[in-house]
Design brief:
By secondary structure, chain A is of the alpha/beta class. Chain A has helices at about 45-55, 80-85, 100-110, 115-130, 145-160, 175-190, 200-210, 225-230, 235-250; strands at about 10-20, 20-30, 35-40, 60-65, 70, 85-90, 165, 195-200, 210-215, 220-225. In chain A, helix 4 crosses helix 5 (about 145-160). The longest helix of chain A has 16 residues, at about 175-190. Chain B has about 230 residues and is an all-alpha fold. The chains are: A alpha/beta (about 260), B mainly alpha (about 230). The interface of A and B includes residues 80 and 85 of A.
């Protein structure tokens, strides 16, 4: 077992069933500060469940999840832990009744109790970081999918998290809008944000990830660097899956 | 038009009994506004109880809502006015009108609000919790502001409905527009004309209210929706 105090995030033997359906069957991996890992795998293999467990939106049946010195599953200050973990997912989850700016300010004001004026300045800075200064006063329904997802990223970043989780952030987007979101994510990675990303965007995985984790049926089949994963995957299942991804999404990493 | 009204002595009757009509109208409007105000607050509380409450609370709210919606308004007024005195609770006609309509209105408002609460997607809860928001904060700052807005069209209907339905108050003798009409007609025997005047007054108030609420609705609409 790895030293649990060294990594930023350390997941040890995570288990979860939904009824009779064993979704996570002993998942273990860790993430150091500044690292970027991508989880890939067929749908229904528990990738999203791993992320949901990390901020305890789903309570695992067994195992441990350490964020630095705090064990997340058993901690009693989950709302404080969640502030440390930014979560961006497929459905955006923007608050429909608030403008882009207000979406980003809300967590600062209500959770971090930042004074309104400061919250506004911080929110504007984050929206600038994702290239959305021109839509501060737009409501979610007035934004494109790519803009919505960037607001969601800015909203998560505003809480100054130590770790960002991305659950298929581009899967709900039109193809021409995927790029703008991936660019924001790439910039984040380059600035040193620690990121755990579930995605099928192999170009992204190749460009920024330190390790690719291939999951299937609740288990980690293989994990290795992108170079190794793409050139010589060890497991035949990994090879098969990557081949299918190539067919669907084109060869990754051509940029 | 004017000649027809003159012919039927409608204007004459209206002018002669102006004070009574207006006093009835004042009661009707006050009753409606108070009932809608209290009914909305109580309705939102019931909806929250049904949607988020622990089981006994949720069951209680559900039972209340279904019983009120499943029984006639008239029966409810009768129970409050005629049956409660048998148990030593004696309420005036006016009190019964305020209480009965509020209790009734709350049940309907609760259902409109609940449907609106449920229309707020799971994704928004997920992102609220991910920001570290507590459940009550999520309900208060995310769900309710949206649910209340979604409820406005149903609320408008309820307002119009209550405005007219308060005429039931005349059965227990609360001094609303209908009761005043009945009083006037029992003196001049012009039942048709008096009730026609009452109907016209209701119609004008309904149209006026619809117009005002429509303005309010536009003001609070979430841009980009509908």
């Amino acid at each position: 077992m790895e030293d649990k105090n060294r990594s930023l995030l350390n997941i040890i033997d995570l288990k979860k069933s939904f009824g009779d359906n064993l979704v996570l069957d002993g998942i273990s991996f860790s993430l150091d500060t500044g690292e970027n890992k991508v989880i890939i795998g067929p749908s229904g293999t528990g990738k999203s469940t791993v992320l949901n467990c990390v901020n305890r939106l789903v309570v695992p049946d067994g195992g441990e999840i350490w964020l630095e010195d705090t064990e997340i599953i058993s901690c009693n200050n989950i709302n404080e832990i969640r502030q440390e973990i930014g979560y961006v997912f497929q459905g955006f989850g923007l608050f429909h009744h608030l403008t882009a700016l207000r979406n980003v300010m809300l967590g600062l004001i209500r959770v971090k109790k930042v004074p309104k004026k400061e919250a506004k300045e911080q929110a504007i800075a984050k929206l600038e970081q994702v290239g959305l200064l021109d839509v501060l006063d737009s409501y979610p329904a007035q934004l494109s999918g790519g803009q919505k997802q960037r607001v969601a990223i800015a909203r998560a970043l505003a809480m100054e998290p130590k770790l960002m989780l991305f659950d298929e952030p581009t899967s709900a987007l039109d193809p021409e809008l995927i790029g703008e979101v991936l660019n924001v994510m790439k910039n984040l990675a380059r600035e040193g944000m620690t990121m755990l990303v579930v995605t099928h965007e192999m170009g992204f995985a190749r460009a920024v990830s330190d390790e690719i984790i291939f999951m299937e049926k609740g288990k980690i089949v293989e994990k290795s660097s992108p170079e190794k994963m793409f050139k010589q995957p060890e497991n035949p299942r990994t090879r098969e899956f990557l081949f299918k991804l190539d067919e669907l999404y084109g060869k990754g990493g051509e940029e | 038009m004017l000649e027809v009204l003159t012919e039927f002595m409608i204007i004459d009757i209206f002018v002669r009994n102006f004070g009574r009509f207006m006093s009835g109208l004042r009661f009707t409007i006050t009753l409606t506004l108070v009932v809608m105000f209290l009914g909305t607050i109580l309705g939102v509380i019931l909806a929250l109880g049904r949607s988020y409450g622990i089981k006994p609370i949720s069951w209680f709210c559900t039972a209340y809502i279904e019983i009120i919606r499943g029984t006639p308004m008239l029966a409810q007024l009768f129970i409050l006015y005629f049956a409660l005195p048998a148990y030593g609770i004696r309420l005036s006609a006016v009190a019964v009108a305020y209480l009965g309509f509020t209790l009734n209105c709350a049940a309907y408002q609760a259902e409109y609000t609940r449907v609106s609460i449920e229309s707020v997607g799971a994704d928004q809860y997920k992102s609220a919790y991910s920001l570290g928001m507590k459940r009550w904060q999520t309900i208060l700052f995310i769900v309710l502001p949206q649910a209340v807005r979604w409820s406005i069209p149903a609320w408008t209907n309820e307002f119009i409905y209550i405005l007219k339905y308060t005429s039931l108050a005349y059965i227990i003798g609360a001094p609303d527009l209908m009761t005043q009409g009945k009083f006037i007609a029992s003196r001049n025997y012009q039942f048709f004309r008096v009730y026609l005047i009452a109907a016209i007054i209701y119609l004008i108030i309904v149209l006026l209210s619809t117009w005002i609420i429509d303005k309010i609705e536009k003001k609070f609409k979430i841009p980009g929706f509908g």
